[in-house]
Amino acid sequence: MNEQARRTIASYTTYQEAARAVDHPSDQGLSVKRVAIIGQDVRLVEQVTGRMGQAGAALHGAASGALIGWTFVLLDPVVSGLRLALYGLAFGALVGALLGMLVHAAHLGRRNFASVSFIQPNRNDVVADDAIAEEAVQLLTERPGGTGTSASTSSGAWKSSRPQGGPAVT
């Protein structure tokens, strides 16, 4: 597949702002399949949610194991009785709890916390194929809630003084 030459037409600090910026040109009939939102300067954030002890590891493992055990039993089309489903739930919970405790113990106290990981970009660039970039920039300047006075540069990049909730200077 041949990739079209693309250029940045706007940059935003949040993905939600970038998505809202793409909505307006889409509503105006722009071929948004030629537009992309690209997260730049990405970092991995691991948010600690609490302390994890043997009991927590067992509970977390039991919940995961119960769900897996129950799902496998329900996927069997021949035997899908409620009693068997409950046995799968209980067996999965028991095995999951034991595995959760075993894995937690194997860490030897080096990771006694629970966390959630996510990827967070520093900025979100809206890029468009060269063929539609000028039209996209024009539609962004006409966007309701936008500045309306922002002009595009010769490269088609959005240029503004960074209004509240608006695009960053590119």
Please report which band the strand proportion falls in: under 5%, 5-15%, 15-25%, 25-35%, 35-45% or over 45%: 25-35%
Q: Kindly state the number of beta strands.
A: 5
The chain-level mean pLDDT equals 76
The description of the largest β-sheet is: 3 strands, antiparallel
Strand order of the largest sheet: 1-3-2
Order of helices and strands: EHEHHEHEE
Number of helical elements: 4
List unreliable stretches of 5+ residues.
147-170
Q: Structural class, please?
A: alpha+beta
Oligomer: single chain
- Indicate the percent of residues in helices: 40-55%
Radius of gyration: 25 Å
Shape: elongated
Beginning-to-end CA distance, first to last residue: 28 Å
Write the layout of secondary structure elements.
Elements: E1 6-12, H1 15-27, E2 35-51, H2 54-75, H3 82-106, E3 113-129, H4 130-141, E4 151-152, E5 158-159
Helix pairs in contact: 2-3
Short description:
This protein has 170 residues and is an alpha+beta fold. 42% of the residues lie in helices and 26% in strands. The protein is elongated, with a radius of gyration of 25 Å.
Keywords:
170 residues, alpha+beta, three-stranded antiparallel sheet, 4 helices, 42% helix, disordered C terminus
Task: Explain what you see.
The longest helix has 25 residues, at 82-106. Residues 147-170 have low confidence and may be disordered. The chain contains 4 helices and 5 strands; from the N terminus they run E-H-E-H-H-E-H-E-E. It is of the alpha+beta class. It is elongated. It is 42% helix and 26% strand.
